[in-house]
Design brief:
296 residues; globular
């Protein structure tokens, strides 16, 4: 009898998963470098990427027209939440450390898990308790350290947490639409709605809209929308939630390295403990059964 060969790791999807997370982690760095204002940078992040996303939808034979009215309105509403998510996150990036921004901006997984407790009217169980305890302890450590640095840094943490809440709302709104539309067609229309929201918010804030230096906003669009989102859309269907959650930890690590090299942001041992706790909570939230994370 031939020996049983070990299960082969899908190399290309694994590379895409890691590359997607690294690309997304570079987003906050590009936002810091942009001279158009943080929310304006978010507008260009989407506006520059929309034509390419639409082409990907067409290439994958996903419909861009003719969708049911209710689905279309849900996609647009989801786009409003996504736009507000980006606005809150990009403003927060300017006030807190890049590692904190990457962690708290990804808090949507934890928010969905908590939402599941509310919607299903039950208490946490199993691995959900340590996830919540780690998240609360880690967040308290990081926010306490931010408050020691500056109240503005704490303000940035809170804005990034708000972004995580808004992103969870975006995911909940689009639950049904995802079952009826392809990822690229859904992303095309939601990004269109998000771009309008970001342009309005940037105008209200009085930010300069037109960049003086296009390199950061082009890099932001490539890293956060095209490479980051594109690689993850391709890779996510190949892996269980645990692998996806662990790979997500690349983001705060890369963001912390970028913050240290470019802006002198040094994480102390206490900060690293906070990062580890929140990161482990995100992993645990990823592997929580779907029914516990979201209603319906």
């Amino acid at each position: 009898m031939d020996p049983v060969s070990p299960k082969r790791v899908p190399v290309l999807p694994l590379a895409a998963l890691l590359l997607g997370n690294v690309a997304l982690a570079m987003g906050p760095w590009f936002v810091r470098l942009a001279d158009s204002g943080p929310v304006s940078a978010g507008f260009w992040r989407l506006a520059l990427a929309i034509p390419f996303i639409a082409l990907l939808a067409r290439a994958n034979r996903q419909p861009l027209v003719g969708m049911p009215r209710g689905v279309f309105l849900a996609v647009l509403l989801g786009g409003v939440f996504f736009g507000l998510d980006i606005a809150s996150w990009h403003v927060g990036i300017g006030y807190t450390r890049l590692a904190n921004a990457a962690l708290f901006g990804n808090a949507g997984s934890l928010v969905l898990m908590v939402w599941g407790f509310i919607a299903w009217r039950r208490l946490p169980k199993g691995r959900e308790w340590p996830a919540l305890a780690a998240a609360l302890t880690g967040a308290a450590i990081l926010m306490g350290r931010s408050f020691e640095i500056s109240t503005q840094t704490l303000y940035g943490d809170l804005l990034c947490l708000l972004a995580g809440l808004l992103y969870a709302g975006y995911l909940l709104i689009l639950q049904d639409a995802r079952q009826k539309l392809g990822n690229w067609s859904l992303l095309t229309w939601s990004c269109c709605a998000s771009a309008v929201v970001l342009l309005i918010v940037a105008a209200i804030r009085g930010e300069p809209i037109w960049p003086g230096n296009w390199a950061p906003v082009i890099g932001l669009s490539l890293s956060s929308q095209l490479i980051g989102q594109g690689c993850l859309v391709y890779a996510l269907r190949h892996f269980p939630p645990l692998v996806i959650g662990i790979a997500l930890l690349c983001q705060p690590a890369v963001a912390a390295l970028a913050g240290w090299i470019s802006f002198g942001e040094v994480l102390s041992a206490v900060d690293l403990i906070g990062v580890a706790l929140v990161g482990s909570a995100l992993v645990l939230a990823k592997v929580t059964p779907r029914g516990a994370r979201a209603a319906g």
